[in-house]
Amino acid sequence: MKRAAHQAGALLLSVLVTSCGASPPHAPAAAAGPAAGAAASAPRVVSAAKGFGGMVVAPEPNAAQVGQQILAAGGDAADAAVAMGFALSVTLPSRAGLGAAGACLAFEAGAKAANGGTPRAILFTPQAAAVPPSAAAADRPAALPLLPRGLYLLHHIYGHLPFEQLVAPAAEMARAGVPASRPLVRDLDVVAQPLFADPGAQAVFAPGGRRLTVGTVLRQPELAAVLARIKLAGVGDFYQGELARLIVQGSAAAGGPIGEQALRQALASVAAPLVLPYGTDRVAFLPPPADGGLAAAAAFETLAQHPAAVQQAAARALAVAAAWRNGGGSAAALLHATPPAASLPPLPASATFLAVDRTGGAVICATTMDNLFGTGRMVPGLGFLLAASPARTPPPLLAAALAWNPRARAFRAAVGGAGQDGAALAAAVAMANTLRTGQAMPVTVPEPGRANVIACSRYLPGGGGRCAAIADPRGLGMAAGAIPPPPQNSEVHPIIIR
Length: 498
Prior knowledge:
Structural class: alpha+beta
Shape: globular
């Protein structure tokens, strides 16, 4: 399943240049109007035109650098996404810990690629952990920890580098420590008082009674040991081995008991995405139960025909999501229906990260702890937080979209949307504006949404054109490019720019 990959030293560069492909066709006719969005100025862009080695965007800078290193070492988009996912469990556990859930869209270019050059969804969405009959009262019901299995399935289908190589950077950051970033500290500021009621959480995020500040070294030795065991023994140990036994015991002590059988049966799955036309291109969205994709598709349909109709698109997104959550029909039926106006209850935070490689492979993932820092309780001795149960807290709108050309089987754009009830609209607005203008997110998306984008002015792979990566400037994340690895057997001199 895995192909041989080039090995190279890591190249940490912030702005790089690259090559894309043939020109995309003209977009369908649309009503005249300003680009849909809330800001007058464009976000900062990392662009590329020559020597393209791929691009990444992550909601936290340390994780983005890990993805950048993996691409520079010859990894593909899935490899980079898996490495960033594990890195975020160290650097942004408020939204992407080992206890998290999520969903990804994945694409490989070319007729001989995985799934024949069409996108697929990897689903590991929030699932409530059934309380074992023998367990004591659960005062903090937990979700099943699905992030490791979701990332493993993504790698199994699309990855090239050895899995342990992708876990290693996260394990090392947890062991040696990493500077606390602005996104993590900002999340800590929101929930510090209730979070620090848990001794395990306080020991990590306020060691010695001093809360982490930006730049303070965050060390997590217990989490490092768990990641090291995943690296050596594999993900299976987390679900049905020695780690699983410790999780079952520790989760009960943390007030969110997870049964042995429930943990073993916590699986990720592969599904067909929702697909909408845009000229001769197609746009894939996450399918339910990642219903943020359904809501984004509903909003995108409106914006594709009426670019300025942002309020109508927002209302339709929420109406469709509410209808699906209330059992109002299939996703396909809801996209052709006009459900009544509706709202959603307050929704938890999420995060998105993206990777595109030099061959046109692309991955977009959205993750959540179903509450900032999940249940707020560490699994004793294991160093990671349990995610909150979706049976108690409504799950977020996990939103991601990917545009490609089915005839050329080539990549065009990838978008991840976050921001509570604005997540789906964020993904739709960013994708609609990107495809309509040929520029990656020319304006920021409406509040409270946040969008991360990678897009090419022409198709990838191929020749000519430019690609650009953008982290939403309000989200404090990072977009970065990678220099392609040198030919095998050539001498490598690592370059690090700080």
